[in-house]
Design goal:
Layout lengths: L9 E6 L5 E6 L8 E3 L3 E4 L4 E4 L4 E3 L2 H11 L8 H7 L12 H13 L9 E4 L3 E4 L4
Helix pairs in contact: 1-3
Length: 136
């Protein structure tokens, strides 16, 4: 079952036995916080921040939060830039050339403290787009 990122969602993920990231999305319950557990951090959508185990915190813009929630609601599936523009930015991608998605992904990777050469959470799928790598 898939839940739209605009609605209140609860996303939980945990490392699988092989070290990959497995994510599950559950429907919201009363009093539940909107958070995404990552290998070394928690994305807290209620506080608009990413908290790392070492105590580092990074603020999330509204768009970064929406983008991360949207990708996490489609775990393991490459999402095209056009789909992201339609669903997150609410823009028609036709005849639109922009690097804004790439820049937002780069900012999220920085905040997630991912190795730029080998990202494990937000993966670029060449020729297709970006993927939240749950269980990949």
């Amino acid at each position: 079952m898939r839940y739209d990122f605009v609605n209140a969602i609860s996303i939980a993920s945990e490392p699988a036995t092989d070290g990959s990231l497995a994510a599950t999305i559950t429907p919201p319950t009363q009093g539940c916080s909107r958070a995404l557990q990552l290998p070394n951090a928690v994305a807290d959508f209620d506080r608009s921040e990413i908290r790392h185990a070492d105590g580092n915190r990074f603020g999330l813009s509204v768009r970064e939060s929406e983008l991360l929630q949207f990708l996490a609601s489609n775990p393991g599936r490459p999402v095209s830039r056009d789909e992201i523009l339609r669903c997150v930015w609410h823009l028609n991608p036709r005849n639109l050339i922009t690097r804004t998605i790439d820049m937002h992904i780069a900012h999220l990777r920085d905040k997630l403290q991912e190795d730029p050469g080998h990202p494990k959470v937000l993966v670029t799928v060449r020729g297709e787009g970006y993927m939240f790598a749950a269980g990949a």
